[in-house]
Design goal:
Order of helices and strands: HHH
Number of domains: 1
Number of helices: 3
Radius of gyration: 17 Å
Largest sheet: none
Number of strands: 0
Helix content: 40-55%
Structural class: mainly alpha
Distance between the termini: 48 Å
Strand content: under 5%
Shape: globular
């Protein structure tokens, strides 16, 4: 027997392993984001996160104007090797 309450919750749950994107950043892109965050104490990771959320929300809402779709969160991980 399936516990539908649990199945419904699981279907609505999204985690970072569901959607993973690798982005290679050029030094020029990093400088653009640093300039965008000039004057505040945000790290480059936070500036990138806010920029990505804004861009993703624009794309999501482009064809869904009657809905105000929002991104819950974006996790940034840097490979420093």
């Amino acid at each position: 027997m399936i516990d539908y309450g649990r199945a419904d919750w699981d279907l609505k749950r999204v985690n970072s392993s569901d959607y993973t994107v690798e982005v290679k950043l050029s030094e020029e892109q990093i400088q653009v984001w640093k300039l965008a965050g000039a004057g505040n104490d945000s790290s480059i990771g936070m500036i990138l996160k806010k920029s990505l959320i804004s861009e993703i929300e624009l794309v999501l809402n482009k064809n869904n104007e009657d809905q105000n779709l929002k991104v819950a969160d974006v996790n940034i991980t840097f490979k420093n090797a």
